[in-house]
Specification:
Distance between the termini: 102 Å
Strand content: 25-35%
Strand order of the largest sheet: 14-9-8-17
CATH topology of the largest domain: Neuraminidase
């Protein structure tokens, strides 16, 4: 009283600290964070309790949402109506809540970000499952507190049969902290809780056998068990989400990407707009059209692709650049004991739920016990009254009024006040024999119930058993299958290779330095001797130099006429049609004047080779460690030192223990052990592999594995389209540097040898391309096996001015 009217100085820092701390705690406890016990923020709890109080249960009629909002505002929630209605609407959205708590009638918004209709238009009532949060609230199971103006009482927490904290999750931003709890599958949570009750010391790994990860209402996919485990173990972590997509074949050989489920909390309309913008800005190629075919039955986004597009490549780019792939940042922050914000792990949240249910069941049991004992007390009074009914009636008849009768009965028969009131209220019909029997039977049943309730209160194990029984009932009624598919493997960061579909391709290079890539299905197999199909339409002065098969994920080492090497990825070579010319190599490689690519080596993942064996046109041989070409800069590296106008033609991987077979254009071949060629540095010139005549040159080089020699053969192809197979064991091993032995009979009919290739038993087809662009695929088993000194059979019918330019094995 002494301080009234006195103004005391106070430091601004102290005032701000104290006031802001009060504000922060108010936001944390009373607005933004859910209670771990029932998983609800105050506004949601008040909405559900108000609907329960209004009688808006699942079996009843709908009422205007405005009625609910008004009830909540008037009695419990001293904030804006927009906040209340937004919270109500979210609990009715099946794309926001894994198990919606409000049954909404009308427009409650959409995945496209549409707002709910005004509260005067929509109607609501409780969902059946949400009643499990409120059931038994009238049995003193939870504490009630004063509302904001102390005119009403409201529950501080709900009884919550459901493990709602994890079931529907929560999102909230407080002061200095935030929560982001993902929704989960009810069946999995109940199985995990039951296991935890049976095994209180179980580990997180044990629980994750049941709770496999978040289960989002919108479905989709989640990745990486390691990330999920970290989030559950620490309460924080990121989990990668992906849309559920299918690639389906459309008309005329094109494909469509169908998106059936999107990641949680992704705005579908914004997602489609983002994809359209990326296509417009040419950041994603291959998309022709996109449309939204979603309806009441579910999401369906159709992305039409161009015919030349790689569906998997386009899809991976969409994952990389759009919200078709998102990360859910888990933050398991909730209020413990209703007042303390705490980051919890999975086991702690479930333990808090179990502890809450134990308290609820004990309080409910005590309430029912007190009620049963009160009824027992009355029944015992009625039974005693029936035993002395004549005396009681006489006492009542002699009394002047009810109060005197009440007093005399208590004095004469030692009845309690409650028992006496019950006797005075007893109807005459209860004097009948059957009515008396009902009282005795009810008393017997009440005594049995009291014994059961007292047994529950004395035995904590029975309380846990009741929790499990009630959860089992809920599991039976509301449990369903998981919507979100869990993949144990991580998605990882996108490397460029991740955006490419692995396919077999044919790489074609022309003498004019143009390169293109075509999928192998461009060509279909034909019979031997056919004319083939047009593989490309080159200019008269630009003939095909080489073609080979590889995959889109291979590294390509380009060796040039100057002895340099470049490296690019196979998928960097643009896809083209059969008739297309392709693009100039100078777009990919920094080639110098009069420098051309003469050999290309595809390096696939998992290659066991240790060396690269090189052979020049003049017969020089060199062996270099393959590791010397791991880091090839864009400007290239020296691969071999060339002399006297020589040209590097062949490069193949070896283990260091193989044999080499060189074939010349004039029909000679020499086979020698690779060990006769010592490893050299990149800038070395090499040693002589074969002794050539002045007009002769090397046209074929193969690496021979001695262990696999049986069944293998050498394929000889001549410039006039003739070919044959010769058993590899027909070529004896000689010393390096000799002239070799005859491998084919060269005549004007078949022409000189264009190429010699080693054929494995599993090789099935041969792809031949002429200088004028004719292409044919020939089954290898239709090509006859002949001796070394033969001219072969016709494989390809060529014009007089045409000849075979390149060969590839399929």
């Amino acid at each position: 009283m002494e301080d009234i009217g006195i103004v005391k100085p106070r430091k601004i820092v102290e005032e701000m600290q104290e006031s802001y701390l009060d504000y922060a705690m108010s936001v944390i406890v009373s607005r933004a964070l859910p209670d771990v016990r029932d998983g609800l923020k105050p506004v949601h709890r008040r909405i559900l309790y108000a609907m329960w109080s209004l009688g808006l249960k699942s079996g009843g009629k709908f009422r205007k949402s405005a009625t609910v909002v008004g009830e909540v505002l008037g009695k419990y929630h001293p904030h804006g109506d927009v906040a209340v209605y937004d919270a109500l609407a979210r609990m009715a959205q099946d794309f926001s809540m894994r198990y919606p708590l409000v049954d909404g009638q009308g427009n409650f918004g959409s995945m496209d970000g549409d707002s709910p209709a005004a509260m005067r238009y929509t109607e609501a009532k409780l969902e059946k499952i949400s009643e499990e949060l409120l059931v038994n609230i009238e049995k003193n199971t939870v504490d009630f507190v004063d509302n904001y103006d102390r005119s009403q009482q409201e529950p501080s927490v709900l009884p919550a049969k459901l493990p709602n904290a994890l079931l529907n999750g929560a999102v909230g931003i407080a002061v200095g902290m935030a929560t982001n709890i993902p929704p989960h599958n009810l069946t999995e949570l109940i199985d995990g809780i039951n296991h935890l009750i049976d095994n209180p010391k179980c580990t997180l790994e044990d629980l994750m056998q049941f709770v496999k990860g978040p289960d989002f209402p919108t479905g989709g996919l989640i990745f990486n068990r390691k990330d999920i485990t970290e989030a559950y173990a620490t309460g924080k972590g990121g989990i990668v989400m992906r849309a559920k997509t299918d690639i389906v074949e459309a008309q005329k050989g094109s494909f469509n990407i169908i998106v059936n489920e999107v990641p949680y909390q992704v705005n579908k309309a914004t997602l489609i707009t983002k994809i359209a913008d990326l296509v417009k800005d040419k950041k994603i190629d291959g998309i022709k059209d996109i449309r939204d075919e979603s309806d009441k039955d579910g999401v369906r986004i159709v992305i039409e692709l161009k015919r030349e597009a790689f569906p998997k490549k386009v899809l991976n780019k969409l994952f990389s650049l759009t919200q078709l792939q998102e990360k859910f940042h888990v933050n398991l922050l909730a209020l413990a004991n209703g007042i303390q914000p705490q980051v919890m792990n999975l086991k702690q949240i479930l333990e808090h739920y179990i502890e809450h249910r134990k308290i609820v069941i004990v309080r409910r049991t005590q309430f029912e016990l007190d009620k049963a004992k009160a009824r027992e007390h009355i029944l015992e009074g009625l039974k005693k009254a029936l035993d002395h009914i004549d005396e009681i009636i006489a006492t009542i008849k002699k009394s002047k009024d009810r109060d005197i009768a009440h007093q005399k009965l208590m004095e004469r028969f030692s009845f309690s006040d409650i028992q006496t009131e019950a006797i005075l209220d007893m109807r005459l019909a209860q004097l009948a024999a059957l009515e008396r029997k009902k009282i005795e039977d009810e008393l017997k049943a009440i005594k049995k119930l009291i014994a059961e309730l007292e047994a529950i209160l004395k035995d904590p194990k029975k309380v846990l058993l009741i929790i499990q029984e009630e959860l089992g009932d809920i599991r039976e009624r509301y449990g369903d299958e998981r919507r979100t598919k869990v993949y144990a493997k991580a998605v990882g960061e996108f490397a460029q290779e991740d955006l490419v579909q692995k396919e077999d391709v044919v790489i074609t290079i022309t003498q004019g330095g143009y390169i293109k890539s075509m999928i192998t299905s461009t060509y279909k197999a034909q019979k031997r001797g056919g004319k083939g199909v047009i593989g490309m339409t080159p200019k008269e002065e630009d003939l095909v130099a080489s073609c080979f098969m590889t995959t889109t994920l291979a590294n390509l080492l380009f060796f040039t006429s100057k002895g340099r090497v470049f490296k690019i990825k196979a998928f960097e070579i643009p896809k083209s049609s059969r008739q297309a010319k392709g693009q100039s190599l100078v777009n990919f490689l920094q080639l110098g004047p009069e420098e051309s690519v003469t050999a290309v080596l595809p390096i696939e993942k998992g290659l066991k080779a240790k060396f690269l064996a090189m052979v020049t046109k003049k017969g020089l041989v060199k062996k270099v460690a393959i590791g010397d070409f791991d880091n090839v800069r864009r400007s290239g590296l020296i691969a071999i030192k060339l002399k006297g106008g020589d040209t590097l033609l062949w490069v193949k991987p070896t283990t260091g223990q193989e044999e080499m077979l060189l074939t010349t254009s004039l029909g000679q071949a020499i086979r020698f052990k690779e060990s006769q060629v010592r490893p050299m540095g990149r800038t070395a010139a090499g040693v002589r592999g074969a002794k050539l005549r002045s007009e002769d040159s090397i046209v074929g080089m193969d690496i021979v594995n001695k262990e696999l020699e049986k069944g293998m053969s050498i394929m000889i192809i001549t410039e006039k389209g003739f070919g044959k197979r010769t058993k590899l064991n027909a070529y004896k091993v000689q010393g390096r540097g000799g002239t070799g032995i005859k491998t084919a009979k060269i005549t004007t009919k078949n022409g000189s040898i264009v190429t010699a290739r080693e054929i494995m038993p599993e090789n099935e087809e041969l792809l031949l391309m002429s200088k004028k662009g004719q292409v044919i695929r020939v089954p290898i088993n239709t090509i006859t096996v002949q001796g070394r000194a033969t001219q072969g059979v016709r494989l390809m019918k060529l014009g007089e001015d045409d000849s075979v330019a390149a060969v590839a094995l399929v």
